[in-house]
Amino acid sequence: MEWLNGGSLVLGLVAWVLPIIGILIAREKKLHFWSLTALSLTACAIAIFFQMVYNQHLIDINDMSALLDISKAVTYISGILLLVTGILNALNVGINHKKI
User: Fold this and answer.
1) Which pLDDT tens digit goes with each residue over 49-78?
2) C-alpha span between 17 and 3 (Å, rounded)
3) Packing angle between helix 3-25 and helix 64-99, nearest 10 degrees?
4) pTM recorded for the entire structure
5) What letter would DSSP give residue 15?
6) What is d(CA 76, CA 53) in angstroms, rounded to the nearest whole number?
7) Cα–Cα dist 98/33, whole Å
8) What is the enclosing helix (H) or strand (E) of 48?
9) Terminus-to-terminus CA distance in the chain, angstroms?
């Protein structure tokens, strides 16, 4: 189940990279920025879901000390992931919408 943490990290990075790609090169490469935005938000949601599944796994194996150790950090990092993903996607849509 440790792969969930790695998957969450990779998907979180994907959620940030896709709108940056949209801001930088979507117009030049004829990429549709709405699809990049949808993929980014989906990657963010799946990353947070992976963390929820990992927390449930810790509950299932009764590893309460690990759960208590990571719960505050997971909440904080998930909030940052949501905030930055939202800002980047808003910039992507705002910048590319004006170019249409």
Assistant:
1) 999 999 999 999 999 999 999 999 999 999
2) 21
3) 10
4) 0.90
5) H
6) 17
7) 12
8) helix 33-60
9) 44
